[in-house]
Amino acid sequence: MESKVVVANHKMNLTVREISDYLKKISKINNKNVIICPTSIYAPYFLQNGYSVGLQNISYKEKGAYTGEISPVQASSMGISYAIVGHSERRELFDEKDYEVHAKVINALDNNMGVILCVGETDEEKDMLRTEYILKKEIRNALKDIKKEDECKIMIAYEPIWSIGSGKLPKNKEIEEIVVYIKEVLKKLGLSNIRILYGGSVNEKNIKELKKLKGIDGFLVGGSSLDPDKFLKIVEVAVK
Ligand code: PEP
Fold first, then answer.
1. Are 98 and 137 in contact (CB under 8 A)?
2. What pLDDT does 51 receive?
């Protein structure tokens, strides 16, 4: 079975002391298919240790008086190669709109960064059979006017919001059907070379089953990426 990409999203967790312990424990990992998205101030620790690093968010501005923001120009000048864009926590808690997600995607791509674009439906949207509508809307709005040559720099993470941090997962068959649907949406946009990840309650116990998913090129891991032992186990299974 082919090797998958594993993206760790640490969110706003871990202290410097914990990061130092984490780095010791994951030192066996030496693979470009693993991308660590730490809290941004810790990025240098992971870069110095040879990891591919992503930010959890990126500005759609180039530079200037935007307190608290980090631009793709700055990130790529440090060697940070990816940005997570449109994570559901940013959309929900920080009221991030589709047009901002789009502007962030374009700014990151134009400045030579890879993009991990998160899309997914809430519990209510799933119950109202609106999953496909939501995915189509989020993907079309985020990826409009993408240059063909940039598609290899994009990964779409399908993250059902009801699955994030809940321990609940869709059935493998349901995820595979969603992948087919996402590929149809992408095809209509003239895009055929975008990798698709799954995210939501991935852990060291279910990774073996999830690795069997057809059409899934990798995983976005939140909670279970915080524990270095669990994360190592996930990587050992997924990246082979
Ligand atoms: C996430 O927030 O992107 C995520 C996948 O979280 P968890 O693995 O904790 O469900």
1. yes
2. 95
